[in-house]
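User: Here's a chain of 417 residues. Predict its fold as tokens.
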Amino acid sequence: MSALPDSAAWHAAVAADPVLAVWAGAWSFRFAIASGNASVGFAFADGRLAGTGGPPQATLRAAPEAWARFLTPVPPRHHHNFFAMLARVPGTAVEGDLLSFYQHAHVARRVLEIGRWLASGHPAPAPASAHPPGTPAPVPHAAGAYVPVVARGTDYALYYETAGRGRDLLCLHTAGSDARQFHRLMADARLTSGHRLVAFDLPWHGKSPPPSGAVPGSWRLDTDLYVDLIMGFVAAAGLDRPIVLGASMSGEICLELALRHPDAFAGIVACEACEKITGRFTDFPSHPEINQGFFIPEWIHGLAAPQSPAACVAEIDWQYAQGGPGVFTGDIAFYAGEWDARDRVHRIDGRAARLHMLTGEYDYSCTMEMSAATAAKIPGATFRPMQGIGHFPFAENPALFADHLIPILEHLKDSAA
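Assistant: Prediction complete.
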């Protein structure tokens, strides 16, 4: 039993794939996909499929039943992406040269997407994205400006954008990205009719430059600096007790804000957050033999749900491909390293902070179970899972996420009244 598609049809579809043709170049990679005692090999030379020749540099191994779930049209959680399987499905492994695999992870992912397309009974070629089509990005109706913020004795110029009118909703972007993640929410009249969405870029991110004289690659985020930057921005931008929204690393810092500054916010919405994340730190983006423009989007690509629109997922990937050297690593050093609130989440007063927690079904980094366990330690906090959403809720499926967010905003409005 192998659960894998017919090897001849798979090779033919890979050889003719227009996406892989774009990536052709001066690179070679041999890898195999193994299921039980069966395997299918793919050998690329000069960026083009050249058969199966030679021993694989890396073998992607999983149990036949795991591959069977992976190859379904809409896979179940933790089986929708090979990185998700590595993290959450026992028996999944990369055997051989891990560096070679990471250098070509986008190639392996595309080959697997083609396999899923064929296994679902479709003829080649596979579509460019495994996600369902989505609408193009709306033209953002946002006004931008800079404010000066001093944090830990360093002067920063932070860029921010606003859209809408009403109660301020402070939107915090995820690790390695920037405020563009909120452009689609900023175009949702259900939100902008009663709230002014405010999103800023952390230093080194997006349009916020590094401080004067900073050495490229030296960015390192930690809990105290993060809190100082947020509170400094709130003061500099003149925000009056905004509601704060974050996910992933910005969801984590939302928990810290709930502990340190509950009275500074009219409500706190912490998405994809828990007291401690393990297993997600990687310094491979800073490896001199890895193209971070390909690797970082690949490292985060599988965190999106398979149901999320292709246009939205492509925007996330593109924004992650644009980060400066060491910026993503510096953020992940906080997200999956320095951040550890196991000694203090129980001291958060969820009622005083008006703390609401949400986590997507397909998030394999911070799972629904991890967020629920943290919420259970916080008196007065609420937790809700979000079906059909992954790790980037406000960016990967903004309309669906707004369906979860709007009732919370209405509740906060009623509570204030």
